[in-house]
UPF0271 protein (Marinicella litoralis), 256 residues
Amino acid sequence: MSLQIDLNCDLGEYDDAKEWQHDADIMPYISSCNIACGAHAGNPAVMAKTIEMAKANKVQIGAHPSFPDRENFGRSKMDFSISRLKPIVVEQIQCLQSLVIAQGAKLTHIKPHGALYNQAATDQSLACLLAEITAEFDQPLSFYGLANSAMQAACQQYGVRFVPEGFADRSYTADGLLLARDKKGAIINDMACMKQRVITMIKQHTVTSVDGIDVPLYLETLCIHGDHLNSIQTAQSLHHALKRAGIAVKAPPLIL
């Protein structure tokens, strides 16, 4: 069986639609994108422009909802009741969906952002809320989330197609979680190291943690952060490295 991986990137994380060139330069090297829905970054004009570029590049489109936290780019832990958080997340996804439909495109998946993603990786009730939102949506959607996390278990419980995600530019702990951004070595910028880690993740289904422990890791999608240093070069280099290693860059199959 030939190897393949989805290469996804968080995009539309700016506030002026004139700043689109950065995302445009990444688009040719990825197979799916997660578009900010306005709560941590972005706005309808930026969303529309990002959808337009994704459609032109045949890149699958996902919603990237977050806690309402523009001040901290959605990366601060927040405590919301499930009943209060649900409409906040649903509204974000519906906003993006309406813009996707207006351009004759298709919304394919949901991937939470920042603190919402990280909290849902270990908080079963929050993970279940996100899985429930996905299951109840008015069209079939996949859910991108951290491999081996509470999100994976929640999606299985709610009958949602889960796409296990790994990170090219982040370090892992021994329990398979992402090392907190404020910890030394959390962000990987060394391109040679990144390429080797990614190929090992895909071919050997493991990742070496910051403690030197090999952690089992089965992936279907790999994330590049669009706001990280040299993200365009990272996307380009990883895309070509994967192909040289015999790994096709291809989005997950659509849910019909």
About this structure: The first strand starts at residue 3 and ends at 11.
